[in-house]
Design brief:
Radius of gyration: 27 Å
Structural class: alpha/beta
Largest sheet: 7 strands, mixed
Number of strands: 7
Number of helices: 11
Order of helices and strands: EHHEHEHEEHEHEHHHHH
Shape: elongated
Length: about 260
């Protein structure tokens, strides 16, 4: 099941990033006196960017834009930009005006159009948890007046922080089945099927280079091979010289594993 994450890279590659770069927590600290969000979430500060434009094109915008993605099987997909409006100081949703929301969304879309990243099909309005249910009802009741092309979604800062996670905080899910592979190799070792073991090791060596771009997976492969190598050394007395040469050749061919040569 995919997990929602914030995707800072999407924000960094947008053309307006040099002029609009900020952090979502900084926006909330500036406007509401509290850093409600994960301090690692980068964003485009649309208010500041909008005020830097010539006055004749200045207009109201959403507060910020972050990158989001769906993280599944160690990969990010469905990467989009998400527009956010902070309204943590509202005590009632009755101050909301549909025309103002439509204008903010439409103008922000216009400012973001110089980039190529797709936009999420919804926009977020962040309210204090005390009026969240009222805000949800208001947006549902007034959805018929929404002509911005994006659905309105209301949530609290607490909900936001539970939904949009940091990729580096997620547990890594290995691509390879290391436990079953170890059982198979130990079985081959116990039966002294050394040629088959060499073929398996060679396959793992090729897998290491195939996955070298993934720090997590390549590290797991290296650790796995080292553990198997230790098991091989324990059984060296059952090997002849030709078998030892075969395994030592493997160690030479894959120096990144840093395997200790085997000798009688």
């Amino acid at each position: 099941m995919a997990t929602q994450i914030f995707d800072n890279e999407l924000v960094r590659v947008h053309p307006i990033y040099p002029k609009a770069k900020s952090y979502l927590a900084q926006l909330s600290l500036r406007d509401y006196g509290k850093p409600y969000f994960d301090t690692r979430i980068e964003c485009l500060d649309m208010d500041s960017y909008e005020t830097s434009l010539p006055q004749n094109v200045s207009d109201s915008t959403m507060d910020g834009v972050i990158g989001i993605a769906e993280h599944d099987d160690n990969r990010n997909q469905n990467r989009r930009l998400l527009m956010i409006e902070l309204r943590m100081n509202y005590r009632t949703p009755h101050h909301l005006k549909t025309s103002s929301l439509n204008k903010k969304v439409s103008h922000t879309i216009q400012l973001l159009s110089c980039g190529s990243c797709p936009l999420a099909n919804y926009v977020l309005f962040i309210f204090d948890n005390g009026i969240l249910q009222q805000a949800i009802r208001w947006m549902r009741d007034n959805q018929c007046y929404n002509n911005s092309g994006k659905s309105w979604l209301a949530m609290s800062p607490e909900m936001f922080n539970e939904i949009y996670l940091c990729e580096s905080d997620l547990p890594y899910v290995p691509v390879h089945e290391f436990d079953s592979a170890k059982d198979k190799l130990l079985e081959l070792l116990n039966s002294q099927s050394f040629d088959d073991i060499y073929e398996q090791l060679d396959w793992w060596g090729q897998e290491y280079y195939r996955w070298c771009y993934s720090t997590q997976e390549s590290s797991l492969i290296r650790e796995f091979v080292k553990n198997i190598w230790d098991e091989i050394i324990l059984r060296k007395d059952a090997m002849d010289e030709e078998t030892l040469d075969m395994f030592n050749l493997f160690a030479e061919e894959y120096p990144n594993f840093m395997l200790q040569p085997i000798s009688l």
